[in-house]
Specification:
The chain has 12 helices and 7 strands. The chain is an alpha/beta fold and 315 residues long. A 7-stranded mixed sheet has the order 1-7-6-5-4-2-3, sandwiched between helices. The model has no long low-confidence stretch (mean pLDDT 96). Bound molecules: pyridoxal-5'-phosphate (PLP). One of its GO terms (molecular function) is pyridoxal phosphate binding.
């Protein structure tokens, strides 16, 4: 095996997940997995597609209907013109992250990541031959990533920063000023902001998500990755996207052509249904997550000697 493979950092989330599998008496909180089922109308769209025989290879960047549905969703959400040329359909946000790093990061360069972060960032940065540079978060700052801490760690080898707001595992939401300052740093130093917004819909207390793309005003130095895994309880469907400048999407599609070829069409039909169908179940899920957050935070705070910040979003 290659030195990359032999030194690949194992995700400790999976280690905990594997432990829970052999212990019948534990509740697994190891993985960002909704306890709800994918809405019935979404499942039905995939079944109908299979029955209609949509079982062949298709376009590497995704079927036109889904790319358009994503573009329309984000044009409305961001208040920016997003076109199908900006949308690459991927195997979950995870593959969108991988493609983003493959395209924007030179081997031997540095990628800034929040510390702590979703552990797969470390593996993905390692796999493209770059070095992950952790940027700490502090209790005094409400565990939010701060632009000043990022600025201190920029070098002439910095090729990208991965942002994640709302954050896994912290549940924090970054301040708009900090995100904007990081976009400005990216413009100044010529690196890319890869913004992992998979929890964009899971925000509490009536809070609304503000994307790095909205704050930047364009996609020149920003790639946004997201998916339906969390919002529509679709983790196992592996359906996500990257939203980027058209030349970036074009090369992502070329790489996809030589690897996965394309996401299965029935899965993509389910994605169209999820984005364009009724969103009531999403709201019910977020309400349930908020009630659970309140219960867990209150219970933890009742334990003498334990303090707990109130998460603003995510699981
Ligand atoms: C921060 C973060 N990014 C990405 C992912 C992966 O999302 P997807 O299922 O869309 O690949 C997760 C899943 O837990 C996550 O927590």
């Amino acid at each position: 095996m290659s030195s990359m493979a032999l030194s690949y950092p194992r995700s400790q989330i999976r280690a905990m997940f594997d432990l829970t599998a052999v212990r019948p008496d534990v509740v697994s909180l190891a993985i960002g997995e909704p306890s709800f089922h994918t809405p019935a109308y979404v499942r039905r769209a995939a079944i109908e597609s299979v029955q209609a025989g949509e079982t062949r290879y298709d376009a590497s960047a995704g079927i036109a209907g889904l790319r358009n549905a994503v573009a329309e969703t984000y044009s409305a959400r961001w208040g920016l013109p997003v076109e199908h040329r900006n949308v690459m359909i991927t195997g979950g946000a995870m593959q969108a992250l991988q493609l983003s790093l493959l395209l924007m990061v030179e081997p031997g360069s540095e990628v800034l990541v929040p510390d702590p972060c979703f552990p797969n960032y470390l593996g993905q940065v390692h796999a493209v031959g770059a070095r992950a540079v952790p940027v700490p978060v502090r209790k005094e700052e409400g565990f939010r990533l701060r632009a000043a801490d990022v600025a201190e760690r920029i070098t002439d080898r910095t090729s990208a920063i991965v942002l994640n707001s709302p954050s896994n595992p912290l549940g924090t939401v970054m301040d708009d000023d900090d995100v904007l300052a990081m976009v400005d740093l990216a413009r100044l130093h010529g690196f890319t902001v890869i913004s992992d917004e998979v929890y964009e819909q899971i925000l509490f207390d009536g809070r609304r998500h503000v994307s790095a793309a909205t704050l930047a005003g364009d996609l020149d130095h920003v790639i946004v990755v997201s998916s339906l895994s969390k919002s529509h309880a679709m983790t196992g469907w592996r359906l996500g996207w990257a939203i980027a400048a058209p030349p970036v999407v074009a090369v992502m599609a070329e790489i996809q052509e030589g690897t996965l070829a394309n996401l299965p069409v029935p899965i993509q039909r389910a994605g169209i249904a999820a984005l364009t169908g009724p969103q009531d179940e999403l709201r019910e899920m977020v309400d349930a997550y908020q009630r659970r957050r309140d219960l867990v935070v209150a219970t933890l705070r009742d334990i003498p000697g334990v303090t707990c910040e109130q998460p603003a979003g995510a699981f």
